[in-house]
Write a structure and sequence with these properties.
single chain; 141 residues; mainly alpha; 434 Repressor (Amino-terminal Domain); 6 helices; 45% helix; elongated
Length: 141
Amino acid sequence: MAGSDSFGAALRRLRVAAGLTQERLAERAGVSAAGVAALEAGRRTAPRLNTVGLLCDALGVDPVQRAALIDLATSGAAPMRSTSSAAPTLTAAEPVEPERAGGAVPPKSRSFVGRDEELRALHEAWRQRTRVALLLGEAGV
């Protein structure tokens, strides 16, 4: 890899080396192709770490490349190290109990809030083997 890259340039280099199009990488990572294009073009320069992890997984990068890509994403100018370098020492994060997370992770909901009547109607239609159409849209609109 080049000695000093931007995150976007490094991402593009890894994607091309993996033989993937932006669309295929996006599909594998579960992100949008427009997002991958924006990252590679430098229109988006501060990706979420979760996004970087998904991209690394989709690209199948080694731990050294992953660490370097994360470094680029967080600092913007760190060098990408080659795959032949020694892997960095990785330490596991300690799990946090949900009650200590300070509300960062909402509890799992077992109910479909505010849609009891709709759920009853769907259940009844299902019981009667009636065809059901599903319409999707943005929540709250």
